[in-house]
Design a protein that fits this description.
Blueprint (H helix, E strand, L loop, with lengths): L6 E2 L5 H11 L4 E5 L6 E4 L12 E2 L4 E5 L13 E7 L13 H7 E4 L2 E12 L5 E6 L3 E4 L2 E4 H8 L5 E11 L3 E10 L8 H11 L9 E3 L19
């Protein structure tokens, strides 16, 4: 038998990635795809494998990290929306059920085919390797600086005593918005103290990305398929 391979499609901090790699005995590869793209779009096949990239488009897939109008590629290192070229009903979904307006916003016809705007943000390096940033509405501006709530969650999940976390944006009169964190303790009998979490954030996160408030909760509200329902937590 050949060497085992593991794939994941979840934002992981560096510490969690290395810990998982030791547990299973191999470094997992990150991939990217969604229901609307029918199958995988891109995957990390670089060396060494990393925790923070979704790699290059697979053969037969064409991807552009696009600006706000979805027509032009942004430069290396600049966040843009992942747009995928395809054919609805073949390698893209046909549309959102009973929602032609949303479907119309998501698709753009072009001579080369149909471009689908995923609603996900990524950056591309000079070699075209993609790094997932988060959903378009999960990236907020704190004092003019872009902050990915997804990336903050992946980082804070590695803090001592934290099992999982959700980070939401709260309006702020000085900074426009600020991140606030809702934390589930790894050990409910000995939860982390907000003051300790704040000190950890000062040492591990940029000033804009640090949650300004820490709330301990028993569990994160989720959908039937396990996605966190951020709107259920007041920012």
């Amino acid at each position: 038998m050949g060497d085992a391979e593991l794939w994941f499609a979840q934002s992981l901090g560096a510490g969690h990635y290395e810990q998982f790699s030791r547990l299973v005995g191999t470094r997992p590869r990150q991939l990217y795809g969604m229901t609307e793209t029918v199958a995988i779009v891109c995957a990390d096949s670089g060396a060494p494998l990393r925790h923070d990239v979704i790699g290059l488009p697979l053969p037969g897939r064409e991807v552009v990290v696009a600006d706000a109008d979805g027509r032009r590629a942004v430069g290396p290192g600049v966040p843009g929306e992942i747009t995928v070229l395809g054919t609805p009903g073949v390698d893209l979904f046909e549309g959102y059920l009973d929602d032609p307006r949303t479907t119309g916003r998501a698709f753009r016809s072009a001579p080369e085919g149909t471009w689908f705007s995923t609603g996900d943000l990524a950056t591309a390096d000079e070699q075209g390797v993609l790094r997932f940033v988060g959903r378009v509405d999960d990236v907020v501006k704190v004092s003019g600086e872009n902050v990915s709530l997804t990336e903050v969650e992946a980082a804070v999940a590695q803090a001592p005593g934290v099992l999982e976390v959700a980070v939401v944006a709260r309006p702020d009169s000085v900074r426009d918005v600020v991140p606030v964190a809702y934390v589930v303790a790894r050990d409910p009998a000995a939860p982390p103290r907000p003051a300790d979490l704040a000190r950890w954030a000062e040492e591990n996160l940029s000033s804009a990305a640090r949650p300004r408030e820490w709330t301990l909760i028993d569990e994160l509200p989720r959908t039937s398929v396990g996605k966190v329902r951020r709107f259920r937590m007041s920012g």
